[in-house]
Design brief:
Strands 3-2-1-6-7-8 form a six-stranded parallel β-sheet, sandwiched between helices. A two-stranded antiparallel sheet has the order 4-5. The chain folds into two domains: 152 residues, Rossmann fold; 88 residues, SIR2/SIRT2 'Small Domain' (2-Layer Sandwich), CATH 3.30.1600. The model has no long low-confidence stretch (mean pLDDT 96). By secondary structure, it is of the alpha/beta class. Bound molecules: 2'-O-acetyl adenosine-5-diphosphoribose.
Length: 253
């Protein structure tokens, strides 16, 4: 049996499949990852200067412009074969849930539903002070401001507006984290796609499933922090591997 066929068998035998995705799943859509040596964002930019509350307080324009740059990079991106294959898996296994660390919306655009978003959504913004409650969403398309001067001001309190993403040192959206934790308790297969497994708490999630007797299947062209606990490692790009898993499932009918 090939590794792909083995993966299909584990999926067929599972009662609850959970998928954990990271930047790698969107790489074939043209969105850079964070830690790939050559073109990863954090190989070109210092996250402590760009992805923390302190950085935003010190230089809101620098941080805002960085996120505008990332939004520009993401604008032309379309879901790739990996996103579509995950949406197909969810059609086949309706209880399947995706937990993503990604701030793009490519899973949803490929047709996946009920996606748990641990790190927010780069297309959205909120008040830096969350003055009307956590979060306080701000629709910047309704605001007029000098775009060369950095972020607009919150219409309620005048504090700067910031992207609705999780920065280093910040807590994750509690409702999303709670949903993820509940899923981990009942998952017997976790498919881990395109993450280095270096950022908590996502990094610990596969181990939680494994320690309860579940099976971890990894899809990644390289090795990662997840590899050593994976029962099965599918080496390759998710846009290539995941459609093969879908085909293997179809052939088992
Ligand atoms: P990383 O950049 O740390 O890891 C990307 C992973 O994707 C690596 O293990 C690559 O080998 C793998 N990869 C590359 N191309 C791939 C492909 N075509 N198919 C499948 N895998 C591929 O990205 P994340 O693990 O997502 O957090 O990073 C986690 C968090 O760190 C991000 O959410 C972000 C970042 O700082 C915040 O911004 C809060």
């Amino acid at each position: 049996m090939t590794a792909i066929q083995k993966a299909a068998k584990y999926l067929l035998e599972a009662s609850q499949i959970t998928v954990l995705t990271g930047a790698g799943v969107s790489k074939e859509s043209g969105i850079p990852t964070f830690r790939d040596a050559l073109d990863g964002l954090w190989s070109q930019f210092d996250p402590t200067q760009l992805a923390t509350r302190q950085a935003f307080k010190a230089d809101p324009k620098l941080v805002w412009d960085f996120y505008e740059y990332r939004r520009e990079l993401m604008r032309p991106a379309e879901p790739n074969a990996g996103h579509y294959a995950l949406a197909e898996l969810q059609e086949r296994f309706p209880t399947l849930r995706i937990i993503t660390q990604n701030v793009d919306d490519l899973h949803e655009r490929a047709g996946s539903t009920n996606v748990i978003r641990l790190h927010g959504n780069i297309a959205k913004n909120k008040c830096f002070a969350n003055c009307q409650g956590n979060p306080t969403p701000v629709d910047v398309s309704q605001l007029a401001w000098d775009k060369s001067s950095g972020p607009p001001r919150c219409p309620y309190c005048g504090q700067p507006v910031r992207p609705d993403v999780v920065w280093f040192g910040e807590t994750l959206p509690l409702d999303q984290l709670e949903q993820a934790k509940e899923l981990l308790e009942i998952s017997d297969v976790m498919l881990v796609v395109g993450t280095s497994g270096l950022v908590s708490p996502s990094a610990e999630m596969p181990e939680i499933v494994r320690s309860r007797g579940g099976v971890v299947i990894e899809v990644n062209p390289d090795s990662s922090m997840i590899t050593r606990i994976a029962e099965l490692k599918l080496d390759g790009a998710s846009g290539v591997i995941l459609p093969q898993v879908v085909t293997a499932l179809a052939n088992k009918n």
